[in-house]
Amino acid sequence: MSDTEELEDVYAAQSAEDTRRIYNKWSHSYDADNLSRGYRLPALGAGLLAQYLRPDAGPVLDAGSGTGLVGETLRLMGFDHLTACDLSPEMLCVSAATAAYESFHETDIGAHIPLDDSLCAGFVCVGAFGPGHAPPRSLIELARVTRPGGIGVFNLLEAHYVEQGFPDIMQALTDTGRWEQVHVTPPFLPFLLAEPDLWSRAYVMRML
Question: Which of 47, 44, 42, 81 is nearest to 64 (CA)?
Fold first, then answer.
């Protein structure tokens, strides 16, 4: 099965268990498949966090951590206190080989993140919010575990995020004084060498 077929299968997933099964199967070829297509979300996500958060600010959560591409990049940039969480245990096993993370949690971030309120200084969640992926309410959990003044970075797909319900959740978090928007990128392609119609934006939020 090609990497494009794997991605199409994830977008068509009807449950968290379907998504977990696909990513478990894909875990050992995920990096080769996606990096060969010019996948740049991990580097962009890590770079945006580093622009707004000092490496010594405190623990950082890599939500939907996959194979650890974000965590490995953050570690190279001086972030030492990293936590990985992902739906797929096989992805977490691959990410452990990066030696970037202090702890790991197998969890559905749309249901519950097993971390205390306001524990984290920041979070990165990239590549996790397309169709068949984590639901919009994941943002509520991500905001819950991030302390006031903390920074959150995530991306959304331009073609899907409205129908998925992300604007309502984002606005509710703003209206209740939970966070404020500090930066939104122009539309960009997550894959430089593939998916020419798959446009995304990245968002940077500060917790209040």
Answer: 42
The C-alpha atoms of residue 59 and residue 50 are separated, in whole angstroms, by 13
Structure tokens at 9: 């299968």
Please say whether the beta carbons of 92 and 84 come within 8 A: yes
DSSP calls for 89-142: HHHHHHHHTTT--SEEEE--TTT---S-TT-EEEEEE-S--STTS--TTHHHHH
pLDDT digits (tens, 9 = 90+) for 122-154: 999 999 998 878 999 999 999 999 999 999 999
In 75-110, which positions are buried (b, 16+ CB within 10 angstroms) versus exposed (e)?
Answer: beeebebbbbbbbbebbbebbeebebbeebbebbbb
Based on its alpha-carbon atoms, the radius of gyration of the chain, rounded to whole angstroms, reads 16
The tens digit of pLDDT for each residue in 60-119 reads 999 999 999 999 999 999 999 999 999 999 989 999 999 999 999 999 999 999 999 999
Strand ranges inside 43-97, DSSP E: 60-63, 82-86
First-to-final CA distance of the chain? 45
Of the candidates 157, 111, 160, 115, the one whose C-alpha atom is nearest the C-alpha of residue 138 is 111
pLDDT of residue 177: 98
